[in-house]
Amino acid sequence: LCASGMRAETARYSVPEEAERGSFVANMAKDLGLTGEELLARQARLVPEGEKQYFQLNQHTGDLVVREQMDREELCGQSEPCLLRFEMLLESPLQSFRAEVRLTDINDHAPVFLNKEIVLKIPESAVPQTRFLLESAHDPDVGNNSLQHYSISSNEYFHVYTQRRNDGGRYAELVLDRALDREQQAEVAFSITAVDGGTPPRSGTALIRVVVLDINDNIPVFTRSVYKVSVAENSSQDTLVVVVSARDLDAGTNGEIAYSLFQNSEENLQTFEINPETGQIRLKKPLDYEEKKIYEIDVQATDGGGLSTHCKVEVQVKDVNDNAPEVIITSLTSTLSEAAPASTVVALFNVRDRDSGDNGRTTCELAGHQPFRITLLAADAYALVTSETLDREQVEEYNLTVRARDEGSPALSASKTLLVRLLDVNDNAPTFTQAVYTMVMSENEPAGRSIGQLSATDPDAGENARVRYALVPSPTGTLAAASFVSVDAESGTVRSLRPLDYEKVRAFEVTVCAADGGSPALSAQAVLRVVVRDENDNAPVLLHPPPDSSAAGELVPRWAPSGYLVAKVVAVDADAGQNAWLSYELAKATEPGLFRIGLHSGEVRTARAVTERDAARHKLIVLVRDRGQPSRSATATIAVALVDGFSDAFHQLGHDPASGEQPQVAEEQMLTTYLIASLCCVSSLFLLSVLGLTTNALCKTRVRAELPPPSPSCYADGDLASNGVGSMGTLSPAYRYEMCLTSGSGRSEFRCLRPVLASPHGHAE
């Protein structure tokens, strides 16, 4: 879209520099064939090529006007033409038009001389037509507005000639018309004017002073043609080397002598300097005997008239012990096997001292106690060799310092540090950080979860120290513990392979192996013991009453006191620890205040003494809960019957406990009926009792005459247990019942007399 909206043509306009703000440049709408409404609707705007916007577009008229005054010399300097480029962007559709405005020069600058007074020194011996170059004036304008020609004021000795350079610039040459005579006129003064080509033209003026120099007919003469001196190389900067001297027979300025270093090398000019008035030659920097042993300096003496003469200075540099020995390594084995034998060559090096004589003689030694030594091969040539066996695990690398010392006074020394790294040999097996690793994993933990990490280290390096972990296969016939966990070969992370049941597997051991990557590989073993942590994944299981029975029946005599043991709920939990700690509570009871249960024992006891007003049948729901998180529970249902004897107990147990629950109102209504019936029966019962006693006495007399004497047989605890009476219930031994039967009894029922209660003095009868 952008490419289709671009136009290759470039609109070109021009505007003079320094144009006022708002000055009209062109009507771009007309040039582009657009109306003001189109410019406004399509949001026409200008995008400059540079950072600053010098033009502004009127969207209503399409006029391009000056936004800010422009100085051509500031924007373009001497470059011509001076172009300011921009783009006009239109939207809907997107179009771009390129344009450039040429900034035309105006004559707003006059030529300017850098110095308002120009001084020329010309000897009176100068011949006519000699040309002298003058300082040029500067005009920042271009074209015709720039500097065009020079002129001078009227005088009898000179005229000016304007010359043109290749770049178009103009400069002035002063031409001598006739010979100068210092005795007639010692100085000539006139003005020079530089004029540009603007309309109107601008100009700049400067004053020229020509000083006529006297003729010098005597040259200076040095006291010696060659000066020879010696300087120690450790002489400091600004040390005096020598003083040269010359004299001139002329008087005045022609007899004044100035000294200088003439046609010397760059090295001489950087090393020596001379005082132009006194002729003292001093050092600009210290000398170095090893770099240069002798210097030759040419000195020139010039008088005030420009005549000069020369002499030579020879500087001999004296050697001092200012250079320390230099250790030059010619061959270095930076890596060395730790199994290298003694006398293995590690490095070859030379020792050099740039001084001479005793200052240049050297000795070499190895600093510190190291398993290396230095052997002399030839003059100033040495070898560094091993002196004993090496062990990389003790020292991985050696920084060997070779120290060289000369025999100067004072002696100087230098040292060179060599870094020798030992290459590893697989001579160390991996070592576990622990002989036995104990890790804990939760039962039912999903496969793939990390339960710990093994760690073994190998003091070797590289592949020899790369430890890989693996499980050692279990012997045949043992628990396949390797199927429970896996070990990451690289990191040693132990992960579970499948969920485990604490109730089946509480702990297991497996052997792990750590082997390095050497050749041959070395290895070590450790024991991994994994302990399975119990989770509360088993609910309590009821042993008594059995969970498959709808309700367990229990008998409680009406005379039971508070704390009487009714039943005992027995439950177990397959979990361990806190998850297997069970607590018992009554979740629901027909009469909540009559019974209570032991929190931890599960024993159901009466909370108070049983009364006649208590209902004959009760239903208890016991909640058994463990202490896991979250806790699990089970419930047991116990049916309790309040009885006066065992016959009544059978009758009570033969009915549904729920059917015996009658409203209190019905009992009150029947109470009156019972009382009336009782009054009617009292008289009859009295008569029947008297008749029964009489009949009973007569019957006993006849039976005793016919049968042997009665021998009652009482069944002890053992007998009851053997018949299943004492062992099947939930009553404790302290609450077993005593029952006696006569051998001659013809009745098939037995009577409950009383419980055998424990007492400090023994069992009751």
UniProtKB/TrEMBL annotation:
What biological-process terms (Gene Ontology) are attached?
homophilic cell adhesion via plasma membrane adhesion molecules
Q: Does the keyword Oxidoreductase apply?
A: no
Tell me which domain of life the UniProt entry assigns to the organism this sequence originates from. Answer: Eukaryota
All copies of the Cadherin domain together span 7-113, 114-222, 223-327, 328-432, 433-542, 556-659
Q: Which PROSITE patterns match?
A: CADHERIN_1 (PS00232), CADHERIN_2 (PS50268)
Swiss-Prot/TrEMBL keywords: Calcium, Cell adhesion, Cell membrane, Glycoprotein, Membrane, Repeat, Signal, Transmembrane, Transmembrane helix
Q: Does the keyword Metal-binding apply?
A: no
Q: What is its main location?
A: membrane
Annotated TM spans:
671-694
Q: Which InterPro entries does the entry link to? A: Cadherin-like_dom (IPR002126), Cadherin-like_sf (IPR015919), Cadherin_C (IPR032455), Cadherin_CS (IPR020894), Cadherin_N (IPR013164), Protocadherin/Cadherin-CA (IPR050174)
Give a single Pfam family match: Cadherin_C_2
Indicate how the chain sits in the lipid bilayer.
Answer: Single-pass type I membrane protein
> A cellular component term (GO) from this record?
plasma membrane
In alphabetical order, the GO MF annotations are: calcium ion binding
The entry's localization annotation reads: Cell membrane
- Any idea what job this protein has? Potential calcium-dependent cell-adhesion protein. May be involved in the establishment and maintenance of specific neuronal connections in the brain.
Identification of the protein by name: PCDBE protein
What gene is behind this protein? Pcdhb14
